[in-house]
Amino acid sequence: MKPRLVFLATSLVLAAAAGCYTGSAVDTNSPYPHVAVESTEPETEDSDDEEEPSKLAEGKGLPCDVALLIKTACGSCHGATPKNGAENTIATWEDLTAESAFDPSKTVAEVALARMKSEVSPMPPSGNLGKDEIDILEEWIDGGMKKGTCAPPKAPKSDAGSGEARDAGRDAAPAPRPSVCTSGVTADPDRYGGAMRPGNACISCHASQSGPTFVAAGTVYPTLVEPNDCNGTNGTNGTKVLIIDANGVMRVLPVNSAGNFWLRPPPVADAQAPASAEIAKPYKAVVVRGNQIREMKGTQSETDCNTCHTERGRNGAPGRIMAP
């Protein structure tokens, strides 16, 4: 297990290596094969309303955050074909809930958790994970190791109408989407703290106003077109932005009640997100909420996310970072 993760408590931090986010679809060449990829095909009228779980083998039966943790922390050794001295595959719900060959009184997940905490024989061997990383697995175990799925949100069904309505609009340019504050809450521009100025470019603003320094920061919204200072997605239900950097280090950033997320540089840490070293670029980013995931296409390099994810989008971004 080569990569080492650092969690900061996935729609995402986006900005491609040469600019910003390169598209709204998830990456069909994802390096996280246990994560479902979003179809670019329109949904048909007779499609099932139930969420489809990932059809890919790795991560099957696991909640998104657990699947990403296991893949990133354990996958290089405990994959479909164990290597580097590993003796078992750890990838699915069945794998993690099975009886451990090393301690039959415990499950594989419980033994893995103990190894992650071990100072003598850590897992991964490269060193102990961060507390926030370990908490993901520990909380899942304490909660009964319930099955989950990890799938992209379904595309909305077409409302294009038929006949004359379609013909009339065939050659017309699409009307711009109206900007609506979905939450109905506009933040006081003079307010300070974690809920201040949602939608604004956090890092550049803090630099000019002598505010706290961030390694990465942004705002998650329920739709693509939302005005500055409008509260975004209330992420206190467990919505997270996950950043996996060029060195395989994963950080988990929690999304707060205003939709904001951030990462502070070391040695600073706060109640929202732990301190972390700089992010090795380019990086991948996903937004996770419950059993749904939205993965941004391509790799990113800009960490002041709202510089590209503006009300109408800049540098190729389609608009706001959007929750799944």
Features:
alpha+beta, 6 helices, three-stranded mixed sheet, 324 residues, four-stranded antiparallel sheet
Question: How would you describe this structure to a colleague?
Answer:
This protein has 324 residues and is an alpha+beta fold. It has a domain at 64-142. The protein is built from six helices and seven strands; from the N terminus they run ααααααβββββββ. The chain has helices at 64-74, 93-97, 108-117, 131-142, 164-169, 202-209; strands spanning 216-221, 240-244, 250-254, 260-263, 284-289, 292-295, 321-322. Strands 3-2-5-6 form a four-stranded antiparallel sheet, covered by helices on one side. The protein has a three-stranded mixed sheet with strand order 4-1-7, with no helix packed on it. Strand 5 (284-289) and strand 6 (292-295) form a beta hairpin. The relative contact order is 0.24.
Which geometry do the CA atoms define? Answer: elongated
Uncertain regions spanning at least 5 consecutive residues? 1-57, 158-172
Oligomer: single chain
What percentage of residues falls in helices of 4 or more residues? 10-25%
Structural class: alpha+beta
N- to C-terminal distance: 29 Å
Question: What summary fits the major beta sheet?
Answer: 4 strands, antiparallel
The value of Rg in angstroms is: 21 Å
How many beta-strand segments?
7
Provide the β-strand percentage band: 5-15%
Strand order of the largest sheet: 3-2-5-6
H/E series? HHHHHHEEEEEEE
Number of helices: 6
**What is the average per-residue confidence, as pLDDT, rounded to a whole number?**
77
